């Protein structure tokens, strides 16, 4: 009895280890679902040793074989799992593509998944096209030829292009291209009234540009969801130009005024220079008279006559100034 009690814990431990490495439940489920020869016990044990989830691979193989995709083996799923792929997404995408008659093989699906794209969502978008708002939050602003601003918002219906999903441009590229096409179409319109009357002309012009080239989508339709009239950009630009011209003219007038002031100051300086020369010349008169006295060319009577004439001149000058002041006072009164 004691020997049996000593062996029992060892047996239990061995049983737990055996059941861990030998998933009997998964093996039985695979045998019942897809046949006993499809996924053997040895493969399941090897998966456990490789640190691959047998449940994940077994569920994928069961779903694929039940959906009729029997060409995909467990080794294929193991390889994709070890490469870091999402096995569940790939299996769901392959089944959905097969049911929707979409040409998607295992190699393409795993390449899309390893590239970081959601292959399941890509297949769903191929079946049910999605709508992309362009732009996402605001509106595209453009100016017609008459200078009126037009703000438009478009909705682009796209379907995933499985063949170009790897390496193809994403939503942001489609939004940028559609926005550029809207700006070009509005800018080509002669008047904002044409845009408001026929907004479908914008969608037709944009759709004809082949904006889905090199992208992961095929554009099905481009619909203008909203159109608003903005500011009169032409009038604002003309007003800004007129204001700029006015400032230029004012600057030129100020330059001419400064030149005139400088010329005036230059003339005043020349006047002062001439007065200085006159004063300098008058200073030479006494010297000349003294020399005339010494030379005998000027007598004392001649000198007094000159002084009398000078006095008379000063008196007349002072009288004339008084008369001018009196006249000014009379005029003011």
Please write the string of helix (H) and strand (E) elements: HHHHHHHHEEEHHHEHH
Largest sheet data:
4 strands, antiparallel
Named CATH architecture of the largest domain:
2-Layer Sandwich
Average pLDDT works out at 81
Fourth-tier CATH superfamily name of the largest domain: Band 7 domain
What is the CATH topology of the largest domain? Tetrahydropterin Synthase, Chain A
**Structural class of the helix and strand makeup?**
alpha+beta
Could you walk me through the main structural features you see in this protein, from its secondary elements to its overall organization?
This protein is of the alpha+beta class and about 325 residues long. The protein folds into 2 domains: about 15-120, no CATH class; about 130-280, 2-Layer Sandwich (Tetrahydropterin Synthase, Chain A). It is built from 13 helices and 4 strands. The protein has helices at about 1-20, 25-35, 40-50, 55-65, 75-80, 85-100, 105-115, 120-125, 170-190, 190-195, 200-205, 235-295, 300-330; strands at about 130-135, 140-145, 150-160, 215-230. Strands 1, 2, 3 and 4 form a 4-stranded antiparallel beta sheet that branches. Strand 2 and strand 3 form a beta hairpin. Helix 6 runs parallel beside helix 8 and helix 9 packs across helix 11. The N and C termini lie far apart (about 150 Å).
């Amino acid at each position: 009895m004691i020997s049996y009690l000593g062996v029992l814990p060892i047996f239990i431990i061995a049983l737990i280890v055996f059941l861990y490495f030998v998933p009997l439940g998964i093996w039985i489920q695979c045998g019942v679902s897809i046949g006993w020869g499809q996924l053997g016990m040895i493969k399941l044990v090897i998966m456990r040793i490789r640190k691959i989830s047998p449940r994940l691979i077994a569920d994928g193989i069961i779903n694929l074989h039940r959906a009729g995709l029997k060409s995909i083996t467990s080794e294929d799923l193991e390889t994709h799992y070890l490469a870091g792929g999402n096995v569940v997404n790939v299996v769901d995408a392959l089944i959905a593509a097969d049911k929707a008659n979409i040409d998607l093989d295992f190699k393409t699906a795993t390449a899309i998944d390893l590239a970081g794209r959601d292959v399941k969502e890509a297949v769903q978008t191929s079946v049910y096209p999605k709508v992309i708002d362009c732009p996402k939050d605001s509106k595209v602003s453009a100016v017609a030829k008459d200078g009126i601003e037009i703000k438009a918002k478009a909705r682009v219906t796209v379907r995933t292009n499985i063949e170009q999903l790897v390496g193809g441009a994403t939503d942001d590229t489609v939004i940028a291209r559609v926005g550029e096409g809207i700006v070009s179409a509005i800018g080509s319109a002669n008047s904002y009234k044409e845009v408001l009357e026929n907004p479908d002309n914008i969608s037709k012009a944009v759709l004809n540009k082949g904006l889905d080239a090199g992208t992961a989508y095929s554009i099905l339709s481009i619909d203008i969801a909203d159109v608003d009239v903005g500011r009169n950009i032409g009038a604002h630009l003309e007003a800004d130009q007129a204001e700029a011209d006015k400032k230029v003219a004012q600057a030129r007038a100020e330059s001419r005024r400064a030149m005139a002031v400088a010329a005036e100051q230059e003339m005043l300086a020349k006047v002062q220079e001439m007065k200085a020369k006159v004063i300098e010349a008058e200073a030479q008169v006494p010297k000349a008279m003294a020399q005339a006295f010494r030379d005998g060319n000027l007598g004392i009577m001649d000198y007094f006559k000159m002084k009398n004439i000078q006095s008379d001149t000063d008196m007349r000058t002072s009288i004339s100034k008084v008369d001018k002041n009196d006249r000014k006072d009379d005029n003011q009164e």
